[in-house]
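Ops channel
N.P.: pipeline sanity check, posting one input/output pair.
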């Protein structure tokens, strides 16, 4: 099942970077692989984002698709990530991937952790 609202989204720039990284890792043409996003305890604001490639969907995972990219998130993390957009910046500040999370009450300067 693919959700369309209350979802996780990806910007065009982040999609291009994900596609490139998957190709570089040799999994670009393997439909079994997807982008796994999650939240773990830690970081300077209490919670940190986690981002990886995976090919195993677990029973309680939430599965989304945006702009042709399959995004999978465990249920606990999804409670923190609902309606978040994954973005990518290669500008002067060199952020790399970051999450535009409407659920975060505050985030740290590095953009890698947040609080709700």
């Amino acid at each position: 099942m693919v959700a369309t609202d209350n979802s996780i989204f990806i910007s065009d720039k982040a999609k291009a970077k994900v596609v490139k990284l998957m190709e570089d890792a040799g999994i670009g043409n393997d439909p079994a692989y997807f982008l796994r996003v999650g939240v773990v305890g830690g970081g300077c604001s209490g919670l940190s984002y986690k981002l990886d490639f995976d090919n195993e969907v677990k029973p309680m995972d939430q599965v989304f698709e945006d702009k042709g990219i399959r995004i999978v998130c465990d249920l606990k993390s999804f409670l923190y990530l609902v309606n978040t957009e994954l973005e990518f910046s290669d500008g002067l500040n060199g952020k790399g991937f970051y999450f535009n999370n409407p659920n975060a009450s505050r985030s740290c300067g590095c953009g890698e952790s947040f609080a709700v």
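N.P.: looks fine end to end. The chain has one domain: 9-115.
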